[in-house]
Amino acid sequence: MIVKTQAIVISSLKYGDTSRILKCYTREEGIQSLIAKGVYARRNRTNPMLSPLNMVELIYDNKGKSTLKIMKECRMQVHYVSIDNNQYKTAIALFLSEILNMVLREEEANPDLYDFVSSSLSFFDRKEEAYSDFHLWFLLQLSRYLGFYPQIKPGAAYFDLINGVSAREIPTGVYAETERMKLLEILSELNFFEQVTNRFNQSQRKMLLELLLKYYEIHLYDFRWPKSLEVLNVVFE
């Protein structure tokens, strides 16, 4: 069966001299692994269309039992304006591509999740100012689609990472308190699409990011902190 679908490239690995193995999140069939044959000339090993987080339209052959589909056609659906030319946005995109590579695993359609990821990336690319909090907002909102969005009540002193709820009494197990709890509360009220100034400074951003990654680590099996975290921290120092 030939499938035509919108897709977000999650990862791209060299295969032989002229081909790539792609992991894509498709709107029609969830996560799919594909082989893109002959996409590079032997003297030119670059093909920016297949870079992680690019949004493309794919046509591939879904016949047989193989988990590796054969890509027939691919064309760019969204042409980014700034992600590839802005070092801060590039660092954020690299970080989020690692996150998505770990957390998107289902081979079934989830149009709401696909639309969230694609619309968020498109807006992030177009936004000229106040984009430095994007990865924090994105991680928090993504947890809603993954099934563990935190229940945060204003004024609570603690956040129970294991149960995903705020609390007035000290929870047992892993929890956040005082400043980190307040930052998480502020983040939960943030609307990135309407944000006109960055809400957090670099110290607060780093604190929040570590809290969110710990939260993901607790709630997702085999979740690992991205290797690009160090690059992200260095770029924003």
Describe the structure in your own words.
There is one protein chain. This protein has 237 residues and is an alpha+beta fold. It contains six helices and eight strands; from the N terminus they run E-E-E-E-E-H-H-H-E-E-E-H-H-H. The protein has helices at 87-103, 111-126, 134-146, 178-188, 202-219, 229-235, and strands spanning 2-15, 19-26, 30-36, 55-61, 68-76, 158-160, 165-167, 175-177. It has a five-stranded mixed beta barrel. Strands 7-6-8 form a three-stranded antiparallel sheet. The longest helix has 18 residues, at 202-219. The relative contact order is 0.13.
Estimated helix fraction: 25-40%
CATH superfamily assignment of the largest domain?
Recombination protein O, C-terminal domain
Strand line-up in the sheet with most strands: 1-2-3-5-4
Query: Total domains, how many?
Result: 2
Quickly count the helices: 6
- State the end-to-end CA separation: 50 Å
Mean pLDDT score = 91
Strand content: 15-25%
Order of helices and strands: EEEEEHHHEEEHHH
| Proper CATH architecture of the largest domain | Up-down Bundle
What top-tier CATH class of the largest domain fits best? Answer: Mainly Alpha
Instruction: Please report the total strand number as a whole number.
Output: 8
Biggest pleated-sheet summary = 5 strands, mixed, barrel
CATH fold assignment of the largest domain: de novo design (two linked rop proteins)
- Overall geometry comes to globular
Rounded to an integer in angstroms, the radius of gyration calculated over CA atoms is 19 Å
